[in-house]
Every structure is written in C-alpha cells, then in structure tokens.
Write a structure and sequence with these properties.
The protein has 1 helix and no strands. The N and C termini lie far apart (about 150 Å). About 100% of the residues lie in helices and about 0% in strands. It is rod-shaped, with a radius of gyration of 44 Å. The chain has about 100 residues and is mainly α. The protein has one helix at about 1-104.
Length: about 100
C-alpha cells in the first residue's frame, strides 16, 4: 500500500510537471502571438500614416499649383494693363521728344 501511495504521488508530480511545461509553452505562444499582432498593428498604422501623409502632400501640392497659377494669371493681367497704359502714352511721349528735338 505504501508503494502504491508513493507511485500515485510520483504520477501526480509527473502530471503536474507536464501540466506546468504545457502551460509555460502555451504562455510563450500567447506572448509570441501578442507581440506579432502588436508589430502588425504598428506596421499597419505606419503604412496608414504614410498613405495619409502622401495624400496630404498631394493635396498641398495641388493647392500650391493652383495658387501659383492664379498669381501668374493676375500678374499677366496686370502686366498687360501696364503695357496698354504705356502704349497709350507712347504717342504723347514721342510728340514731346519730337517737340524738344525740334526746338534745339
């Protein structure tokens, strides 16, 4: 009977060790899976942030191009107005020059 009790205790201890090893392996797998999932979440968030940054840069470039186009257009209109004004004064300036040259 004592031998059977010792044998039962030994079997119980062996089963305990086996359960502990199994639990430790399972815990390592859970940690490993969690780390892998965390890294994937970070990678996904980084990729999403990069895509958002690209979209924002494209939008900013479009806005800058539109603003540049508007400024160039406004400057062209102002330049043309100055040219027209100068052409309008050209005849009067020529008359003044001819008048001064003629007096000398």
């Amino acid at each position: 009977m004592a031998f059977e009790a010792i044998q039962k205790v030994t079997q119980t201890e062996e089963a305990n060790r086996s359960h502990k090893a199994e639990a430790a392996a399972q815990a390592k797998k859970i940690v490993s899976d969690a780390q892998r999932a965390g890294k994937q979440l970070v990678a996904d968030a980084r990729a999403q942030a990069q895509e958002k940054a690209k979209a924002m840069m494209a939008q900013a470039e479009e806005a800058a191009a539109e603003q540049t186009r508007q400024v160039l257009e406004a400057n062209a209109v102002a330049c043309e107005a100055l040219k027209q004004e100068a052409r309008g004064r050209l005849d009067r300036a020529a008359d003044l020059i001819v008048g001064r040259v003629g007096k000398n």
